[in-house]
Amino acid sequence: MKINQRNIGADSSGENLDFGFSFHTHSMKTPVSFALFALVFAIVVPAGAALKWETTEVDLHPSLSDKTAVAHFKYKNTGDKPVKITSVHPSCGCTTAALAKDVVGPNESGEITATFNIGDRSGVQTKNITVRTDDETTEATILKLKATIPQLLQVAPTFIFWSANDVLKPKTITVNVGGDFPVTKLNVTSTDKSIATEVEPEPDAKAFRITVTPQEAGRPINAALKIEPDFPKDAPKIFYANVRVDSRAKMPQK
Amino acid sequence: MSAWIAGPKCRRNRSVRPSLVRQILLLLGLAFLPAIGQTIYYRNDTSWHQRPVDAAQVSVAQAKGWGNAVLWVDARPEEEFARGHVPGAMLLNEDEWNALLPALLTAWSPERKLVVYCSRQTCNASHAVAERLRNEAELKNVFVLEGGWEEWQNRNR
């Protein structure tokens, strides 16, 4: 094999005209060997990383009563020199990541434990943890923790407001029951006695309608509605809606 | 020109073209190989896996220009809020959403603009809080601060 380096289009004969580089074998004049070289290069370069992860994505399904969701990301140093984990950075303050050891010897294994604080979240939550090492040949590794938090009730809207120009007519909050949860009844109480509530199940739907009516005008009202489903009985859940009434809002004319 | 086309060089030029086209196609094909490899290897880092940019983002300068009409909302954890926050900001994060929301709603009024921030450009907490304020509480004029608390500090040094 010989390697020719020429200026672009410099071959005035027209044969083997190329873009500066051409690799020739004795048997062929097309740059097939160059193709093979590029292919091998493309495959080999990403494989140089020494820290191999068993998985970089964990899908968790915590129960209704769980306060946290914990994921374990296992790794192994498959290289021939130690790898130092220089930083482990969660994308949000709600997730903490604990590292068993920061220097991983050849053939050693370890894991990063990521704990996601569920708090008042619901639905699908995805949190990333960025791991960097002193191995300069690899980019940072992004570990993904996905938690599907069951949604017992969906309250909409969670805030109702009567402004200065409003007449204090009833407003409605809809509560949908999530999944197959056997909720049959809601108990709703207000922190302010002047806010009256009435709960009705929606016909032919796993939902309830809460009618909210202010019964007093002339003062600002900030109230919370406490919504308590009759399931689960062993670990009761409380949901909230907020009510605000401007002092200038008027009672409806009778 | 016509003499050049009809001359002997023309025949040589024509014989070159298939070889040139072949090389161009081959090089284009080769360019795709590492691109495809990188796409698969770094599939979790590609932009389409990231949260889409919030349409209602505002810069620090724009938000400060709104003056007292702004109600600042800090979406970071309580410990970070305690270490420092935008003057007058109210804490609202998803860790303690139910406990913190009533105070914010008491301070809110329809003419005010809510500007939510978290620690930096890449954090998602401000987007999540803004989304809940819009969708669940049905509030209007909810914005996310570009660059978050870090950018605020940079602009106020």
Please give a quick description of this structure.
The complex is a heterodimer of chains A (254) and B (157). Chain A is mostly beta strands and 254 residues long.
Tell me about this structure.
- Helix content of chain A is 5%, strand content 47%.
- In chain A, the strands form 5 sheets. Chain A has a 5-stranded mixed β-sheet with strand order 4-11-10-6-8, with no helix packed on it. Chain A has a 4-stranded antiparallel β-sheet with strand order 3-5-9-7, with no helix packed on it.
- By secondary structure, chain A is mainly beta.
- Chain A is elongated, with a radius of gyration of 32 Å.
- Chain B has 157 residues and is α/β, with parallel strands linked by helices.
- Chain B is built from 7 helices and 5 strands; from the N terminus they run ααβαβαβαβαβα.
- A 5-stranded parallel β-sheet of chain B has the order 1-5-4-2-3.
- Classes of the chains: A mainly beta (254), B alpha/beta (157).
- Chains A and B meet through α1 and β19 of A and α2 and α5 of B.
